[in-house]
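Second attempt. The first submission of Ferritin family protein had a stray character pasted in from the spreadsheet, which I only caught after the job came back as garbage. Lesson logged: always re-copy from the clean sequence file. Corrected sequence (128 aa) follows.
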Amino acid sequence: MNRSDNDRKILLKSQQGELDAVLMYQALAEVVKDTKDADTFRKLAAEEGRHAAVFHGLTNENLKPKKTLAVLMPILYKIIGKKRLYPLIAKGEYAAAENYAPVAEKFSVIESVRKDETRHGDTVAGLL
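This time the job returned cleanly.
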């Protein structure tokens, strides 16, 4: 299938976001006080890793995760607490699902990733 430059840009950005989310969830799992939250974040990290692999299958690009969110989120957790941080994370998951919509129509393999992102948002929101 022919990929437009725009599709490619979305796929690469999505792949990067998934990789970054793996590190973010792993980092949060290390600092959160609630063990249920930590377990949930470890599971989400693993799923984000699978998502990154889906996008990698479409881009064939090897990207490196950026540590920005993995550094920032644990600090925010300590400063603003989970009641204010978790809704922001959930919002990010819902936004990812929205952002994937245009490419999910063209690459059916992304539809399950899109559904997972919505579920991730619900999961993180549900920790409150």
